[in-house]
Sequence to fold (149 residues):
Amino acid sequence: MSIIAIRPFVAADLDPIATLWVESWELTYPAIDFKARRAWFCERIEHHLAQGVTVLVAEYAGQLAGLVTVDGASGWIDQIVVAAALKGLGVGDALMHAAEQQTSEPLSLDVNADNARAVSFYRRQGFVEVSEYRNPADALILRMQRPRP
Fold:
């Protein structure tokens, strides 16, 4: 039995996953007050659910470990987060694999260009840069190029 389990998001996940999202982003960008953005994240997840976007959570050894949203029609990943204490243990890999199973389209997403850990993770997953924009920081749009499993 795997130590990582992926399951559909349920309403009771919103508060703990929002806490996980805030903690993860605060470690990545400590100068930004992500607690002030928590309500935005919660509204974003509720919007995704209302629009039929797939929202999945990961559990690692029974504890909430991460989340991914993927639009099955386009393959767009709007949110992916892994608990800071569990990074490097395969949770992100499991979430990405689960996202791939939700669409026949290549996965795509955007990432802040200065978020080196995330950019490196996505490149290991088979994503390549297809464009960039300002958001207000430089951001990259990446699309998965690896063969589908």
